[in-house]
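We read letters as residues; the integers encode the fold. Take this protein.
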Amino acid sequence: MKVLVGFVLWLWLLPQALALSNQLQSHPSPYLALHGDDPVAWQEWGPDAFENARRQNKLVYVSVGYFSCHWCHVMQGESYKNPGIAKALNRDFVPVKVDRELQPALDEALMAFVQSTQGRGGWPLNVFLTPEGYPLYAVLYVPPESFAEVIGKIQALWSEDPAGLAALARQHGPQGYAEKTPQLDPAQVLALGQAFEQMALALADTFEGGFGNQSRFPHVPQLRYLLGRYGQAPSASVREVLETTLDAMAQRGLYDHVEGGFFRYTVDPGWSVPHFEKMLYGNAQLALLYLKAGRVLRREDYSAVGFAVLDFMLARMQAGNGAMVASLSAIDDQGREGAYYLFDDETLENALTRDEQRVLRAAWSLPEAAAFEFGHLLVNQAPPQVAAIQLGWTPDDIENTLASAMGKLSALRDGRSLPVDDKALAGWNALALEAFVEGAIQSDKADYAHAARQIKRYIQTTLWQDDRLLRARARGSALGTVSLADYAYTARALLAFSHWSRAADDFVLAHRVAQAAWRDFHRANGWQRETDPLLKGGELHEVLRDEALPAADAVLIEVSLRLAEQEGNSALAEKARSALNRAHDTVMANAFFFPSRIRALEVAIASQDEP
């Protein structure tokens, strides 16, 4: 009888024993910590989540977001704080919350899945995975009613036929790629560069600037490659695309004209309505782009933008340890999107004199009614001469009064609070390192040189451990999962640093990081974005595309070619060329998305032709 009672008690306690609890309270990731009080029993990404899923035959619900993402905050408030939705997620799934900045390879793979199945992407990025780790279905932001319907239907389908759905999701990626000769065809490489230029010119909007006809993203890898082509062979049509785009990004709403720095993108083709998050990777890449554009195009105003972005990064993104933080939130400390950057009419009236208000409105073409919920954004500055004619003032009076008004707006910002994601990420800090090295080369400002040395020291002493790189570090432990991109960008930045510092030890460190990347991420003539992926179905890639960040394989290959040339390492050069000599048809058909690879091919051809 006692045995029977014990068995019944065990059955009664079993569901409670299996019940999961929220693991994210006080997490070192600010984004994950935000979800620590959700009623959803969030788990961290890792083997334990899949072990739980296999044991209970449940789908894994993975929700990917990041700290400065507006719609991630909205979905949290609407759905993940909703007790009914939380109950369903906890009962029927193993819910996993992911900070995309700590799991960049996973984020890229899931984004590729949602783009291939739905034709669009974005965050929050939510994907249902089978217990084996294969993606089954994805959903982006939806209102709570729709979300509850989605999770109910997915659970019903899984309950009816889990084996059938698992078989549907299971897709084995390629097991390897054929070996290729390291000898490249110069004519083929030339054709790829020409194809890219033709596609870029066809996609370019020479009226508004940028590419395409919808939202406006900086497309830094494409612009950087176009700038390099122009430097080698100047072309009026290429210069028009470059200048139209660089002018629009710096003069309109993508740029914060009060405090400096670029927002991530604008939702309109006119560069007027930004999403207000500021990312380290975006500002680092754009600072470098404008510095290089100033030199190549002989435009001092572009160089000035580059230096201003470096100054912004030093003022707002540098942490006490010398590294750079990941991002500044789009949401202020009161939960209002963009409010930190906006000024309503009452604020302007209280802070500015009547003359300052008149000049500000004229110089920035401010409408009577603010374009944003929480006030005006400075988007389009008119030349002082235009405002002077409009108001009947001298241009000098306009400039002096406007400078006074802008100083007061900047002081208003000092009284506001904006949440910061303070993670110091390896790859993004490497991009910042590269930008500050260029700033130090082009300027005698000691702050840039000091910043470069601090970032390099942080990477070398904190993130480079036992011949391996860490994505981030917190409380003495590794944080997140390092990716191929972290290694590639770090190797490139360290090589640039070594050319500037002229120190042999710095070159040796760049070489070690590059060699470690080949060791850990190059498999069967293909590339893994991370070393031991839990996500199944396409772990190996023959080539990677440029996205908001440059393709990691192409960056590593180019760095390896430059390292090999400098040290006379023929084996490394042949390995890099072999990795380049593949997928030419794919690159030719989609050349606009492979500028970093085409650039690496051109470097390989140049070194191949040398005696």
The mean pLDDT is 93. Residues 528 and 540 are 5 Å apart (CA to CA). Residues 395-414 form the longest helix (20 residues).
